[in-house]
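pasting input
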Amino acid sequence: MKLIPCPVNGLRNATEFACLGEVRLAPGAAEDNAWAAYVWDRENSAGVVREWWCHLPSTTWFIAERDTVADKFLKTYLAVDLPEDMR
Amino acid sequence: MPFGLLRYALGSRYPAGPDLVWPAALGSTYDVVIIGGGGHGLATAYYLAKEWGIRRVCVLERGYIGGGNTGRNTAVIRSNYSTPAAIRFHKESVELYRRLPAELGFNLMYTRRGQLNLAHSEASLRSFRLRAESNKFYGVRSEMVDLKQIRSIAPALNVDRHRFPILGGLWHEDGGTGRHDAVAWGYARGAMRRGVEVHQRTAVTGIVIENDRAVGVETERGTVRAGHVVQAVAGRSSTVARWAGITLPIRSIPLQAMVTQPLKPFLDPMVSSADLHTYIQQTARGELVIGGNIDAYDLHTTRVTLDVKEEMAAHTLELFPFLANVRVMRQWAGIADVTPDASPILGESPVRNYWLDAGCGTWGFKATPATGKYLAQAIAIGKVPEILHAYRLDRFRTFDLVNEMGSSAIAH
């Protein structure tokens, strides 16, 4: 079983986690196309991505930076540690 | 066909040359360049040449033809979908598949065996009823079956002693299977005989765009100019579309499958369980092809995992307990490009003369002939045919989604 490092609970089985998608900023203005793109479109990058994850038993939401080609978790941290421009 | 076969067998002139003749040099200009030599790209090239007389077509494949998701699916051909758009589209695809071996003169090992879907919950039963009635309305043979009928359709199936009792089924007589590699080879040969060039081991590295119009592609072997560019690269749709400046509503998720050692024939129909997320069929040489659910998170790799295999094996044993000691021979994964509504994106893109064949997700194989045929028509006459309208990229701006999330044993 793959182990994922939760920033609060340490290494836990992958089945205890849910991936909640790319970290993105919502559009500032009420513009239809921008919001439709925000709702549906995804970068879906082959490489390093920054995503929201949740450790389900403890409901710990956190940020994971992982490599989608190598299937490796590079870094996990709580949302307070997100870079200023991504909050 | 039988007489043709007999004449062939009794004759003395067997084909001397190879089926596929590879061109040596990559040209500098084509009418249409297709990125991706899988079933979809080759089918599009075939129909462009055959039905529209567009023969200056070039298919560029990074690896070898049919080496991507065309060779990684579980080869299920069916049309028992939920929405009118998908039922009509896949009905056409199943019809094309049925006629394809004769049309291509190539053995696709196509057999119509029917597909039996099992419901272990009231929710699945409800969705089956909707699918059965919608299918019948559009002329696709699907019907609700009870336990007695299920026993007669698949006598080897464990119906009575179940941890998750079977409540009913959806029997789809039109369902079938075929050899997926042969679909790529057959279309490639048909296209090549009409003048289409297929270049293997030729990776595309970029799209050339001038004045918001696609005019060619960059490859490892130089720039190729084109009147139209088509992307048919399941598993890499987002990456390639980004070269053209397009962000797609797609996530790439691995889908795993496995094959057991060969057994004596015991299973004619393809069996699929909506609640166990498992589908099983026995191939012509006796192996069981077993498919499961998509992975839990996005990845751009075809790595495989033990936990998914354990889940598939456990669910298979619920359905066929006597398989407990059967060995797994091969296992693999493909990358499914999944859209938010589990329907494909086919047709125009925001870039002129750049055509999308993406987001077929977990059912690209069964859509191969219809996608190729209608995409070729769209490119040839410059107008997207009505049957593809529901699958336009623009539906994610106008919120006209085509929800097919419940039409397979895979949870979306």
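fyi The longest helix of chain B spans residues 84-104.
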